[in-house]
Amino acid sequence: MGRIELEVNGTRHELEGVEPRLLLVHFLRERLALTGTHIGCDTSSCGACTVLLDGKAVKSCTMFALQADGRAVTTIEGIGSSAELHPMQEAFWAQHGLQCGYCTTGMILSAIDLLRRNPDPDEVEIRTGLEGNLCRCTGYENIVKAVRAAAAAMAAAQPVREAGEPPKSPGELLEVGGSR
Amino acid sequence: MIPATFNYFRPHSIEEALLLLRQGEAAKILAGGQSLIPMMKFRVVEPKTLIDLQGVPELAHVMWAGGHCTVGALTTHASLAADADVRRKAGVLWDAANALGDPQVRNLGTIGGACSHADPSADYPAVMLALDACFIVAGEKTREVAAADFFKGTFETALGESEILTKITFDAAAHSAYVKLEHPASHYALVGVAAVLVMSRDTIEDARIAIGGLADAPFRAGGVERRLRGIKGNDGAAIKAACTGAVTGQDVRSDVEASAAYRTAMADVIAARAVGAATRPR
Ligand SMILES: Cc1cc2nc3c(=O)[nH]c(=O)nc-3n(C[C@H](O)[C@H](O)[C@H](O)COP(=O)(O)OP(=O)(O)OC[C@H]3O[C@@H](n4cnc5c(N)ncnc54)[C@H](O)[C@@H]3O)c2cc1C
Ligand code: FES
Ligand code: FES
Fold first, then answer.
1. Which of A10, B43, B47, B260 stands the most exposed, by the fewest C-beta atoms within 10 Å?
2. Is A179 inside any structural domain?
3. Which residues of B touch A56 (CB under 8 A)?
4. Is residue A175 part of a domain?
5. What is the value of ipTM here, to two decimals?
6. How many Å is the Cα radius of gyration of chain B?
7. Residue A105's domain spans which residues?
8. How many domains does chain A divide into?
9. How far apart are CA A104 and CA A96, in angstroms?
10. What is the CATH number of the domain that holds B266?
11. Considering only CB atoms, which chain B residues are within 8 Å of A52?
12. Is residue A178 part of a domain?
C-alpha cells in the first residue's frame, strides 16, 4: 500500500493505503467522488478520462494514482462552477458542442491543453489537436466551433487583467488551481 | 480492467533503479506507461515489481554540443515535438514526435520507453536507424549499442533484463524527415519512412533511409540509398524512381490493419515523400 500526496483542483490531499494498481481515474471517481471524469473505452483510446496533470492533458485510465504523487491534477470540476463556467464550457454550451455529454468533460480538458500550446488554432489544428478524444454523437463540427469561440473569448479576456489583480474571468481559475 | 497486483518503487538515482531491477521479483521499468499500463490492464504482462523512473529527472533532457545531440530516455514525445532545435537540427525526430499517437499519449510517453518497447509499428525505431543513433545502456557496466544492433525484432531489443536505457545520442541531421502512413484508428504506422540526407548544394550526396511498420524490426533500404546518390533534390521524378522497389527481400507483415502487398506498395510512395521532405529546408 502506498501513500499519496497531491493537489486536486487546488485542494491538497494526503491519502494512505493507496493500492499501487489503482488507476488515477478510479482514484478520482471512487476515492475523491469526482465523477465528472468518465471512463469510455478503458483501453487508452477514447480520451473520455482526460484530466490535466500539471496543466497537460493525460488519460487517467492509463496512469496509476501513485504516479500523480507530488503533482497537481485538474478535473472538469476544477475549471469553473455552475455559476461561473470556464470559457471553454461556456463555448461548448453556446455552440452545441455536445449531445449526450459523455465525451465532453475530457474533450473540454483536451481543448484547454490545446489552447495552452496554441492559443489561436485553425480548424485543422483543432481537429488534430483533439485526436485523442472520440465523440460518438456530434460529428465534431460543433466541437470545432466551440473551441474556435473559446479561443476568441479567452484571447479577448486576457490583456484586461493587470499584474497582481485577482482573476476576472473563470478562465483564469485554472492558474489559481496551480495546474500550469 | 484492473492489472494484477505489484509493488511500486520510485528510486531517486539510476544506481538505485538498477539495484531494484536486479533484486525485485519480476521487475519492470515504468516510464510514461503508455505501452506498459495498457498491457498490464489486459494482463498480457504481470510484473510483480514496478520501478517508476520519474524520480530520476536528470534522465529527461535534450542537450546539443556542437553538432551532437544527447536525449535522455525519459524525455517525452511532447517535449521533443515542441523543441525548436530538434526541429531545425533533427527534423526526422521532430516529425516522428509530432506524428506519434495523440496529444495525451505524447504528454506522458517517452522516447526511451518507445525504443525499449520496440513495437514493430512504432515510429522511433526507423528514425533511430536513419540517424545512426547510439543507445547508452546502464547495467552491471555501461555500454553503447548502435541502433542497427538495438532493434532485434517484435518487442525485442538488445536490452538485458537488468539493464536501463539512459540516453540516446546522434549527430545533427539538417536534411532529414519522417513521413508515415498511419492507421486512422490506432495512429500507429502502417509504413513509416525516415530519411537522412547528406546534401551538397542541391544534390543528394548520400542517404540513410530506414523503413518501419513493415517487418519485425525496421530496416535500411540499401537499394534506395544507392539510387538516390547524385540526384538533384528538386527532381521529384528521379526521387520517385529511386524509391521504387523500396522493399526488397523483406518479410512484410500482413495483419488486420493492412496486407503485405498494400504495405509494400505504400512504402515506395511514403519513401519518396520522406526523401522529398528531407531535401527541403526546415
Ligand atoms: C492510444 C495510443 C497511441 C499510440 N500511438 C503510437 C504511435 O502512433 N507510434 C508509436 O511509436 N507509439 C505509439 N504509442 C505508444 C507510445 O509511443 C508509448 O509512449 C511508448 O511506446 C512507450 O513509452 P512509455 O514511456 O510510455 O513507456 P512504458 O509504457 O512505461 O514502457 C514500455 C516498455 O519499455 C520498458 N522501458 C521503458 N523505459 C525504459 C528504459 N529507460 N529502459 C529500459 N526499459 C524501459 C518498460 O519496462 C516497458 O516494457 C501509442 C500509445 C497509445 C496508448
Ligand atoms: S477511458 Fe481512458 S482513454 Fe478511454
Ligand atoms: S456528445 Fe456524446 S459522445 Fe460526444
1. B43
2. no
3. 78, 107
4. no
5. 0.95
6. 19
7. 87-157
8. 2
9. 11
10. 3.30.390.50
11. none
12. no
